[in-house]
């Protein structure tokens, strides 16, 4: 199970690619899951929109795909024991 | 910014004058829209597109005059309204606006905005702009913007008829926002196959249904060079488009463009580079595959020579556009 934090251009693309090769994907934007429901239903069909905390709880691998300026939203303690892949960059 | 044939850089004055001539040529040859970007970088001469468009308003007769894009996040929606209302007046209703977050970030520090508020600035300013464009009197309380009490902004745009496009580059929220505000959508495709953007069009259409808004024009904007032969255009692009992409890439951490990548973009990807027939076939394919209403060819990238810029415009207007229409009619679109 792969969790993606960030439902923008990068997060959504990774979700789609993951779905395509058969991973189960949980994805969260910065707000409630309903805010990304429509976009996920078209751009990453099959992925499950969730709150960030639920994405972390239910996934073994967590990909960080949020804008770098928002990285303080991540609570490091919640990620304890998970494999975290940082896909954020300066841009 | 174009270069002279001897390799020297044009002055900004020459560049601005040339762009006006290009706009006049586009009008004379029957191109529908002339759209100018807003950039605050050394290699661009236009930071104030509306002033250029105003000059064109008085020296052209029928072409639509648009920005592509106006960087809303670092601008003032009230002043934008005033400038475009003015442009619309002097051009006799030929103004359009394309709003976006821009593909560069120089304008944030330049005008005193915090880049960390990138999303918030755009959201709030678009909300205010929408009030201004749809209502005669606006009451507004802003965090990143001014407060207004029952305010009318002048001059007025007649019947609120200013076409508004939002320029998007693949951020899902930008697509939703465009649908939510009931605006037209311009997709900037600077790399990859056009068909890859089909889901964004589906998302836009689904979102208009969900929000109870309308599907407006959908356009695509991509780079192109048109010359007599495929090889000539290919060679120009390999020098200038590569130069431009590599320069941006150095700031953003992209690798340099390889010839393999360039060949892909010219073949199946986002570059409309070649002879009349090659470019026309490709534009027709993108238009029918995506079902779009408008195609904007971005010319002159990377400091191309003035003669290349003019040749691209001439061939686009006189040969490519009629040929695209012919192909699409034959295909029954």
UniProtKB/TrEMBL annotation, chain B:
GO cellular component, one term: cytosol
Highest taxon, organism lineage: Bacteria
InterPro entries assigned: Bact_Lucif_Oxidored (IPR050766), Luciferase-like_dom (IPR011251), Luciferase-like_sf (IPR036661)
Protein name stated in the entry: Oxidoreductase
Domain Luciferase-like: start-end pairs: 5-293
Gene3D superfamilies recorded: Luciferase-like domain
The UniProt record lists the keyword Cell cycle: no
Keyword vocabulary terms for this entry: Monooxygenase, Oxidoreductase
GO MF annotation terms: monooxygenase activity; oxidoreductase activity, acting on paired donors, with incorporation or reduction of molecular oxygen
Pfam family, one: Bac_luciferase
UniProt keyword Oxidoreductase, yes or no: yes
